[in-house]
From TrEMBL:
Belongs to the AHA1 family. The gene is AHSA2. This is Activator of Hsp90 ATPase AHSA1-like N-terminal domain-containing protein. Residues 29-163 form the Activator of Hsp90 ATPase AHSA1-like N-terminal domain. InterPro entries: Aha1 (IPR036338), AHSA1-like_N (IPR015310). One of its GO terms (molecular function) is ATPase activator activity. The lineage of its organism: Eukaryota, Metazoa, Chordata, Craniata, Vertebrata. Pfam families: Aha1_N.
Length: 236
């Protein structure tokens, strides 16, 4: 354990009004069971699917058993949920007007499986109406899985609001970003021109070579072997 006055952020409690669980270092847990039941009811009941043959609607959240919770440790969120869900659905065949009912069962919705891998089974009471059952197995199942995905998004965002409290470092970083965003880049460019490289003073030097001889003789000096070994007298 850090000693008093050493500045370890895990144990500085005097900077918080409540003086507990500074920077979310310790384990905290929040029960999401009751909230989840209400959210699942909101998202699942009322789902409607329809095609040329018929129309189906999820009419009731018949059973929802299980639990859900969210824990915080060292500023990280850990989710646990396990649900057994039964839904009632009803439908009507458009051509005949005959109505049918059935169930949608989700035996295991948990963090161990992805939504796409979650089992969703559809059943229908005795009698005709397989057209409606097929509609619920295809379009209905897709809509149910979409609603379950929305539940998980809400669990990880809406329900967890306030669980991760900002630390001093996070607040300072956020303030710095806001200040940078609030400054106009054109103003910075106009008021503070940036010099590129290092300025070095230079002078220009021009040199000219003068050969005091005819052009034909100069050409021979550089091309005839016997002449190239002789000394060349240049005037500067």
């Amino acid at each position: 354990m850090a000693k008093w006055g050493q500045g370890d952020p895990r144990w500085i409690v005097e900077e918080r009004e409540d003086g507990t669980n500074v920077n979310n270092w310790h384990w905290t847990e929040r029960d999401a069971t009751s909230w989840s039941k209400g959210k699942l009811h909101e998202l699942l009941v009322g789902i409607i699917v329809e095609n040329e043959a018929g129309r189906c609607e999820i009419s009731e959240l018949k059973q929802v058993e299980g639990e859900a919770s969210c824990s915080s440790r060292k500023g990280k969120l850990i989710f646990f949920y396990e649900w057994n869900i039964k839904l009632s659905w009803k439908g009507i065949i458009k051509e005949s007007g005959v109505k049918h009912k059935g169930l949608v069962e989700i035996p295991s919705l948990s963090e161990e499986n992805e939504i796409d891998d979650t089992e969703v089974s559809v059943s229908k009471k005795k009698g005709d109406g397989d057209i409606l059952k097929d509609l619920m197995k295809t379009a209905g199942t897709a809509r149910v899985k979409e609603a379950l995905g929305d539940y998980l998004k809400a669990l990880k965002t809406e329900f967890t609001m306030g669980m991760i409290l900002p630390t001093k470092a996070m607040a300072t970083q956020e303030l710095t970003v806001k200040r940078k965003l609030s400054v106009n880049p054109l103003q910075i460019q106009a008021s503070s021109p940036v010099a590129l490289g290092v300025r070095i003073p230079t002078v220009a030097v021009h040199m000219t070579e003068l050969f005091d001889t005819a052009a034909e003789q100069l050409y021979s000096i550089f091309t005839v072997k016997d002449l190239t070994n002789k000394k060349i007298v240049m005037k500067w």
